[in-house]
Amino acid sequence: MNRSARRIRRTLQVTGAGAAALVALSACSSSDSGAASSGGGSDGLSGTVNVFAAASLTESFTELGEEFEKRHPGTEVVFNFGGSDSLAAGITSGAPADVFASASPRTMKAVTDADAAAGTPVAFVRNRLEIATLPGNPDRVASLKDLTGSDLKVVLCDRAVPCGAAAQKALTAAGLKLTPVSYEEDVKSALNKVVLKEADAAVVYRTDVKAAGDKVAGVEFPESAKAVNDYPITLLKDAPNADVGQAFIELVRSAAGQKVLTAAGFTAP
């Protein structure tokens, strides 16, 4: 398995056998750390660090992972990106991860309740929702209410994941009910339905709209202020490479890390 192939892995919902598969996948990543640890940098950090992170962090964390490896020769950052609930399930099932960055305190609580976190998780960014439409917004979507029309194909994140829970909170705040054509496993999957023109609109994070560029159009809506998500991060209790995991967290929370995250559309907690 070459370096680029194992840097980023995308996880699916983890239930039953899926949880076992994620544990096995992460164990493979962990076993790679022995090969990577032979050339540690001058700061003593070396080996693979396995970071489980919410799908909405894909672009910004990938950039931070590359920066981390430059700063610490001999290290390698391997990501498992996916729905925060799936990632939490993998961790509590025994996946050998070092760091968990969740898209909501609720999904982080599943990890802390299982006594799997080392210390108290800390919020490092916030994110809010936005409507993603087809390029040019041909359906002239201007509000959350516009999504309730029967002529639009709308997708939402599954209610179990933070972007789905936030969407339901925003809909409740607006006094609206919306039946989507599908519930997707994470925010990237919901956005991709619009990118592929399989849906007319999706309620996603504004960071994902920004990352998609001209593949979608973004529509802000006031109810999103009622459903802002804090993103907590923590070192995990049984981290196979705790020193490198802690150093990665420090980069995320540093001024340099925050610059990358705010450029992606996140805001300070």
Automatic annotation (TrEMBL):
SUPFAM superfamilies per UniProt: Periplasmic binding protein-like II
InterPro entries: ModA (IPR005950), ModA/WtpA (IPR050682)
Entry annotated with the keyword Signal: yes
Xref: Gene3D superfamilies: Periplasmic binding protein-like II
Coiled coil: none
Leader sequence segment: 1-35
Keywords assigned: Metal-binding, Signal
Protein's UniProt keywords contain Metal-binding: yes
Highest taxon in the source lineage: Bacteria
NCBIfam families in alphabetical order: modA
Family, per entry: Belongs to the bacterial solute-binding protein ModA family.
The protein, known as: Substrate-binding transporter
Taxonomic placement: Bacteria, Bacillati, Actinomycetota, Actinomycetes, Kitasatosporales
